[in-house]
Every structure is written in C-alpha cells, then in structure tokens.
Amino acid sequence: MAAGFSVHLASDVEDQSEILEVQKSGIGFHRFGVARSGLNPVSELRTFWNLRRIVQLVRPDVVHNVTAKPVIYGTYIARALGTHGIVNAISGFGYVYGSGSRHPLRGLLRNAYARSFHAPNVRIIVQNAEDHAEVLRMCPAAGSRIRLIPGSGVDLSEFQPSPEPDGTPTVLLPARLLREKGIYEFAAAAAQLRRAGLAARFVLAGRLDPANRGALTEQEVSALCINTGVLWLGDCKDMPRCLQEANIVCLPSYREGVPKVLLEACAAGRAVITTDSPGCRDVVRTGENGLLVPPRDAGALAAAIRRLAEDPEVRRRMGTAGRARAEREFGVERVMQSHLELYRELIGSGGGAA
User: Fold this and answer.
1) Phi–psi pair at 122, nearest 5 degrees
2) How confident is the model at residue 107, as a pLDDT?
3) What does the pLDDT average to over 216-245?
4) What is the C-alpha to C-alpha distance for residues 219 and 204, in angstroms, rounded to an integer?
5) What is the pTM of this model?
6) SS3 86
7) All domains of the chain, ordered by start, with CATH?
C-alpha cells in the first residue's frame, strides 16, 4: 500500500477479529471459503463461482494466488476476465507430494498446475530449488517466468535472540499437527531418548487442522503424548515467546516450501534440527546453524537431538550462526521488495490494484 497499490484480500478466517485486523490496515477484505482437501463437486463449484464473483467485482491489475486450489481456479478465472498479470505462489507442493509419489491425485494435480503456469502473463514464485525444478518439469514454457524467493521472510525486530532457558533442555516442535510434519517421528525419538535416560522436555506447539488430509485427531495426539511423554501446548499464539522458552527447535518434516517457523527459529537464535528434504535444507546448513537428518527416520532424529541436548556450547554457536544468516538472507523486507518488483514487472508501473 505504501508503494501505491490498492490491496484486496480474498480469504477465509478462523474468527471475526481477523477480518477487523485486516480491514483496519486498509485492505479490502472478501470472505472466501475453500476446502483445502476433498473434491466434492458441489462445494468446488461454489468455491469457483465465489472466487469469480470477487475477481469480477475488484477487477484487479494483478491477481496473486496462494496454495493449490486458488492457483488452479484463480488462474483460470483471472485469464477469463482479462486480468493483466497473474502471480502463482507455490509454498511447497503439499500433501499429495509429501505423502509419496504413488498418490492417485498427483498426476491430476500436475496437469492442473501445468495449465496454470503456461500463459505468458503468469509469474510463478517458488521457495526452493527442488520446487523450481518441479515447476519446470510440469511446464517447460514457464522457465523464464519462475522466480525463486526463499520463504515468506521473518520480522527480525519481532524475533530477537535471547539466552537459552536454564535447566532441563526443551526440544520444541512448532507445527500444525499433520503426519507429514514428522509428528510421529518426533514422538518416537522422544520415547527412545527417555528410555535411554536423556534428561530433556519434548514439546509440541501447534493446532489441529482437521480439514487437512494428513491431520491427526485430538484423540491421536493425546494418545501419542501419553505414550511417549511429549507435552502438547496447543496452538502457540505468541511464537517469539515459545521460541525463547526452547533450547532446540525441531521440524522433522517430509517436504516444505521454506518453513516460516525455521526462519523464525534462526532469527530467535535457536539451534535447529530438521530434515534433509526440500525447503528444510534451504534454511539449515548442517553443522553451521543446525543439523539435518533423513526424513521419516526417528533413530537419526533421536541421535541429533541427543547431540545438541548434551552440548550447550554447540547450540549457542549454531544459534548465533542462525541469527546471522537470518539477517543476511531471510529478512521480510527483502521478500516484500521482491514481490513489489514482480508486480511492477507485470503492470509496467507502480500503481494499480492487487
């Protein structure tokens, strides 16, 4: 908005206060429900026509689509209504890719994405090199229109380094409670280390996400915690405080875009353990600001946690390196400037609606 754009947001919200927060900032808000999983024809048709109505009402110069269904539906709608520029942001390829190459929807999704990437007025944002290569495989014609922007950035003033808490080390997994975030591997590693006598607290901080295909139920999470000694805090509304109260941040995810929580952990000066998988390895250089382990490997995860839990000096050094890298590469200002440049490239000037 400060750069001269009129901004509208089409999204769903979890409570009314979020709408008010958006509107107070001067953004035009349009409530738009979309089922992130499932393909009920009636529901999908309703979603499509609701989005079309919003785009027809606003008549933007640029439509910026985020996540699979908005990318696929939004591109078709924007092209049909003659929108000047389209930005399709891919923050990882989600459940279908994270759940394995044999997923029955993968071929359909690839074809739908390819159609969404093909037009010359479309720009595609990816967050890591693997997703860049995947977009190129789907749609070779998009090659010169793909932009690599590593993540959503982090507010370096909000997430500040602080001394680790004293006492028994706390290992924190902050994520939505989805199987592909490595929740089961984290719990198995915690149980293994407890049996081996390691003194550490294992904490989950995240909300249930029942609309997601990979979601754990509240009963499953509760049983997992009872059986392994992991503590579930629920949804963390104050992530800077959660990170301050942790000694180690762990995200054993199967696949990501670039996980925002890892950028926040780096900015907060915490050592990180994550997987050697797309998106995650773009944040952590093993041995420098954290450790990388193979995905779906609870034993390797346990070994990495033990190593850092028993060596506070290594944690301190890695946390310092993480903060330095966040300052160099992950500040939100850099990300915002990259997006503004992309919008201006599409409309040829600094004005217009987005």
Assistant:
1) -105, 135
2) 77
3) 95
4) 15
5) 0.85
6) strand
7) 8-153+332-347 (3.40.50.2000), 170-329 (3.40.50.2000)
